[in-house]
Amino acid sequence: MKIEVLGCSGGMGSGEYTTCIRIDEHLLIDAGSGLGKLSQNDMLAIKQVFLTHAHLDHICFLPLLLDNLFELLESPVEVLALPETLEVLREHIFNWQVWPDFSVLPDKHQPVLCYRPLSVSTPLQTVDLTVIPMPASHAVPACGYRVVSTEGKVFCFSGDTSYDASVLQTFNQAGPINMLMLECAFPERLKTVADQSKHLTPQGLKQFLLQLEQPPENVLITHLKPAFRKEICDELTDLKLPSTLHFLSSGETFFL
């Protein structure tokens, strides 16, 4: 399994791109500004886009992707997400006011976009991967994803989340994780803001990791807000957690 981090930032700036993860050649998790780094041919290879939630930094390049592929596709791009997320897309993005409704273009029988609702903990089989939506605790309905290769290697992405015992329980019930990508958006001094917006701080991340029954050796830290990146990294390093932490940058690639 090839995991390409097209974007992982909690904000914008030179060299900073918001969340978009390409797995192998055909699957995306989220469609933030990192998606814009793909070539036209790479975009054409995308068959499925799994969304964690409907916040703008995670969906902003989805409309542009579909517009790019309008006359080139032989089959629709599947957009897979919780029903609440798909409803936001229908009502507020692909509504003819913000963007054309590609679920009926160029023809409702052969559209560019096909919506597919997901249920938490219900596996979905793709060509060579099993994708399982995992619960998340965010300000809007949201999920993370557990992706399993044919060789049984497991990649988990938390999505945007705060600490929640029920989320942790589901992670523990799901079994071992080879690679975990976990968010941490704010430093500890902004815990009130983090709690209000339902994001993790270093202490929340520590609590999450220490309560994993089978913590992974390596944890990839994502969604760092650029203004606080150094502060968050320093705080996490000082915690001396048992897992090795890697602070993600856009453009990195990993293999499982």
TrEMBL record:
SMART domains: Lactamase_B (SM00849). Gene3D superfamilies: Ribonuclease Z/Hydroxyacylglutathione hydrolase-like (3.60.15.10). Transmembrane segments: none annotated. This is 3',5'-cyclic-nucleotide phosphodiesterase. GO terms for biological process: cAMP catabolic process. Residues 15-223 form the Metallo-beta-lactamase domain. It comes from Nitrincola iocasae. It comes from the Bacteria. The lineage of its organism: Bacteria, Pseudomonadati, Pseudomonadota, Gammaproteobacteria, Oceanospirillales. GO terms for molecular function: 3',5'-cyclic-AMP phosphodiesterase activity.
